[in-house]
Structures are given as structure tokens and as C-alpha cells.
Amino acid sequence: xxxxxxxxxxxxxxxxxxxxxxxxxxxxxxxxxxxxxxxxxxxxxxxxxxxxxxxxxxxxxxxxxxxxxxxxxxxxxxxxxxxxxxxxxxxxxxxxxxxxxxxxxxxxxxxxxx
Amino acid sequence: xxxxxxxxxxxxxxxxxxxxxxxxxxxxxxxxxxxxxxxxxxxxxxxxxxxxxxxxxxxxxxxxxxxxxxxxxxxxxxxxxxxxxxxxxxxxxxxxxxxxxxxxxxxxxx
Lengths: 114, 110
Fold this sequence. Notes:
The structure holds two protein chains of two kinds. Chain A is an all-beta fold. In chain A, 0% of the residues lie in helices and 50% in strands. Chain A has a single domain (5-108), classed as Immunoglobulins (Immunoglobulin-like). Chain B contains no helices and eleven strands. Chain B has strands at 4-7, 10-14, 19-25, 31-37, 44-49, 55-58, 61-65, 71-76, 85-92, 98-100, 104-109.
């Protein structure tokens, strides 16, 4: 049983470019959350997808958008990249409808913006 | 706004000493989770606390949730080198919006 997978593992972009990150949830999970983790900081909640809709959103600008597919996998898109977008982007999956909202994190995508 | 404060930021202990990290929220939490992140790794779920005053133990780890559901702590007894990493609390205000603390980085000297 594969856990949460993310691709790519590393990515280098320049300011102003756009990037798409991908996540496949753990088998049996239907909810995907995205987090941004700057170096030395805790993960910051970006948004959560369930049933192909954005259900919750953190304090991130509209440059950050996402999508969830019928197979529960998800994408995170960031437009007009800024230097400050350099971070580890983590995807976490869980199963909605259970009282125990344990999240399983993927290994993350390290994004560097030059 | 809703946020979770975590202290201390760093803790360096001698192997065998105890370790505690604390989290505090200005508003009531619906639940709190604890995660451990090893250097270069990703957060790994440890436990979730839901009930007021709840205490849970996992071997040498003891987790507490305050009576007012605004604070929580993680205590490790007799630390080992395998305990090294950053410990995060993550509080939920509506079961979906999760706010992580800044983490406590634990180093253990053998």
C-alpha cells in the first residue's frame, strides 16, 4: 500500500513563472490538504480539497490555486512566482467522515524560486 | 486571528533527561494533533487529542490537552537519540482548518 506520493521532489523556477505540483493520496483517502513549509517554520495551511472542491482555505493569495481529480489526486498551482514562494510544499491526505482526522504527509516538493 | 503558539523553539538535552514542549491557543480548539518531523523528512502523525483534560501515553511520550482546550503539552521521559527531530502541535478550530505551531526542535546529546 503506497503512502502519499508527490512529484516532483525538487523544482527550480524563476520569478514570474508558473508551477504545478502533484499529489496522490494514500489508498482509501479522499481528502487532500496542501501546506507550505518555509525553512525552520511549521507547515502553513494553503487549502483542502474534498469531492473535487476546495473546502477550506488558509491565508494565501489567489496566485495559489488547486484542483482535485475524480481519483482523489490533486494539483497545486502557483502563478507569478515570487522569491518568497521558495519552500517545501507538503501534501497530506486523510479520510473525511471519520472522527479521527489523522493526516498522512507526503515527502514534499522542494521549490526554489530564483 | 486564530493561531497556535509553541514553546520553546529549541531544546537541547542530555540523553536520559526529560523534554517538554508546550502549545497555546488564544481561542478554544476542537482538537489538537502532534507530529514529529525528522531532519530532511516530513511530518509524521503521533496522536490526536479531542476531549477536555485528555491525557494519552505512548511509551515514553505523554500528551495532555488542557481543561479549557486552549493548551496542550508533549512530555518525553528519558530522551533517547532517536527522539531527535522537530515536534509540532497542530490545532483545529473547526475540524478542517489546521494551524501548526512553529515547532520545537529537539537535539539529544549522547
